[in-house]
Design goal:
The chain is mostly beta strands. The protein has two domains: 177 residues, Immunoglobulin-like; 78 residues, Immunoglobulin-like (Sandwich). Helices cover 9% and strands 39% of the residues. The chain contains two helices and 20 strands. β14 and β15 form a beta hairpin. The longest helix is centred in the first third of the chain and has 23 residues. The N and C termini lie far apart (79 Å).
């Protein structure tokens, strides 16, 4: 009898430990490798990265993205303006949604994308291969590419940092699960995965909502001012009628500052070390500000 109670106590402790582990399960998302591609039409492309402090095998999930209608128009899914990677078997893809079982069956399926609102996109996926058919944890503390997203740009002149971001508010959070049981076929009825109720989204410029660089031109818009040459292969100058020094700040489309000149006086600005793409050039002078777009080839 004494031995029975010892076993019962050990079992209760094990169940408590498992309960704490499940409670501590979390998942984190951010965007990486943002770039504008193409020479017309243009596309905004990025990777959705996923990580967790508790390693696990991923089950089903759903993400929502808000986007700028000035850049992409509205109803981008209905209008065929978005694609994302999934189910490319045997291609050696680094993306989780392209993983397969024995090189023959896609682990994930039921890929659905639609317009949740005119400026909010939903992408979701399920799983066909269960826990026993997934060889190793595919979400770990090392950031991993979940999917690659490509969005058709309607107006390249409206590009701003933060033009796409995760929707982070309820009920658009807590939509990911650990894998269902089953080997190899998933049994999500008899052995469902666990809902992950702690998720974190890091948007391009930080924070939980879409944020952008200030793009409307202010008083400088009334002064002749342009970037030349634009597109630029190696360097450019700012041509203007402004006689006082200007401060110039350059950001890439993820919002990262890549250059700053406190007192610009007309010299050529070297951009040969920057990757090809679209950049935002913020110019301030005489108490006013404008933001211009520079294409580096």
């Amino acid at each position: 009898m004494k031995q029975f109670y010892k076993m019962k106590k050990a079992l209760l402790l094990a169940m408590l430990f498992i309960g704490v582990s499940i409670q501590a399960q979390e998942i984190n998302f951010y965007m990486d490798n943002e770039q504008v591609t193409g020479t017309g039409p243009f596309y905004y492309e990025f990777d959705v990265m996923i990580t967790s402090t508790v390693d696990f095998k991923l089950g089903s999930g759903q993400l929502y993205f808000n986007y700028s209608s000035a850049v992409f128009g509205t109803n981008i899914s209905t209008n065929g303006g978005v694609t994302y990677s999934h189910g490319i078997i045997g291609a050696g893809s680094p993306y989780i949604l392209d993983q397969d079982f024995s090189g023959a069956l896609a682990i994930y399926n039921n890929f659905i994308q639609n317009d949740n609102t005119t400026t909010r996109l939903s992408v979701s996926f399920g799983q066909v291969i269960g826990d026993g058919g997934i060889s190793a944890n595919n979400v770990t503390s090392t950031p991993t590419q979940l999917m690659h997203v490509s969005m058709l740009i309607a107006d390249v002149n409206q590009i701003v940092a933060g033009m796409v971001c995760f929707e982070t508010n309820a009920p658009f959070d807590n939509l990911f699960f650990t894998t269902c049981g089953g080997a190899p076929t998933a049994d999500c009825t008899g052995s469902p995965g666990s809902q992950i109720t702690v998720d974190t989204f890091v948007n391009p410029l930080g924070g939980g909502a879409c944020s952008t660089l200030s793009t409307p031109d202010t008083d400088l818009n009334t002064i002749a001012l342009k970037l030349y040459p634009n597109p630029s292969p190696r360097e450019f100058v700012i041509e203007s009628d402004i006689t006082s020094p200007m401060s110039v700040t350059m950001h890439d489309i993820s919002g990262k500052q890549v250059n700053y000149i406190a007192n610009y006086e007309g010299d050529a600005i070297d951009v040969s070390q920057l990757q090809a793409g679209v950049y935002l050039v913020s110019i301030e002078a005489e108490g006013a500000k404008t933001v211009k777009r520079l294409i580096i080839q």
